[in-house]
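Q: Please design a sequence for this.
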């Protein structure tokens, strides 16, 4: 799946889980409008994290030289693209890392105690999100917006420290779901354990496409990365995000569209 569609799917997943749109959200983890809108950017950025194992991914270009070196190191540790960084183990590790970030606090006379770790993490994820969606032209601008976002988050929504790790995990898992729907698939949820199908099942028309001889699993309804079907899904998800953010923004200002009808 393309980076832009990964970011969109992350934002859409967060709105679906936390938003208040009737019939279009689950209400599984309801938040106020600030949490829904701010979290959608964090989730969009987190949805790009699994591809940190690839040298040409969005994140690899975020910092000159260092970004590519980091991506190369992650790819080596993970065993290559779409292996370790695309597994449940990675999702758990990233979630724990996000939680640890919330514990890194700083106390000042003017601001009191706040999570500087979450501020930095949110800034980076916001930077990734706006660049992946081509909202800005340069990485410098993206980092500037990210820094402003992180600062505003700790000032205006200090309660975000409680849902920040969840937003990171939801975005990460949204990425895995997106790749599972393409022909590339995933290394299996239990990586590094990658059970292979028995030989007598490897020639079965349907099973061979879902459970590969290599141990990878996929439900390739979207086809190859960048296919027309993927672009169509990305467009629908982008529209959903636009409507969701609009709804939450109006709710932020006390406007209930349903109450007007």
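A: Design:
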């Amino acid at each position: 799946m393309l980076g832009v569609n990964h970011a969109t799917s992350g934002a859409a997943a967060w709105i679906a889980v936390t938003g208040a749109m009737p019939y279009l959200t689950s209400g599984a983890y309801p938040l106020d409008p600030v949490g829904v809108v701010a979290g959608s950017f964090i989730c969009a950025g987190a949805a790009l994290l699994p591809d940190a194992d690839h040298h040409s991914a969005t994140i690899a270009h975020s910092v000159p030289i260092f970004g590519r070196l980091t991506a190369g190191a992650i790819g080596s540790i993970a065993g290559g693209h779409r292996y370790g960084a695309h597994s449940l183990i990675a999702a758990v590790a990233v979630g724990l890392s996000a939680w640890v970030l919330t514990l890194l606090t700083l106390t000042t006379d003017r601001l009191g105690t706040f999570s500087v770790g979450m501020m930095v993490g949110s800034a980076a994820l916001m930077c990734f999100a706006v660049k992946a969606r081509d909202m800005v032209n340069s990485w410098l601008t993206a980092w500037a917006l990210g820094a402003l976002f992180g600062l505003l988050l700790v000032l205006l929504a200090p309660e975000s420290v409680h849902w920040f790790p969840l937003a990171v995990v939801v975005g990460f898992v949204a990425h895995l779901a997106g790749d599972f729907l393409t022909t590339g698939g995933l290394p299996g949820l239990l990586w590094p354990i990658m059970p292979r199908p028995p030989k007598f099942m490897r020639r079965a028309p349907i099973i061979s496409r879902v459970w590969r001889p290599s141990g990878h699993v996929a439900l390739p309804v979207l086809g190859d990365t960048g296919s027309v079907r993927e672009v169509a899904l990305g467009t629908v998800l982008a529209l959903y995000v636009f409507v969701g953010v609009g709804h939450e923004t109006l709710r932020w200002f006390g406007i209930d569209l349903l109450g007007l009808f």
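Q: Thanks. Anything notable?
A: Residues 3-260 form one domain. The first helix runs from residue 3 to 18.
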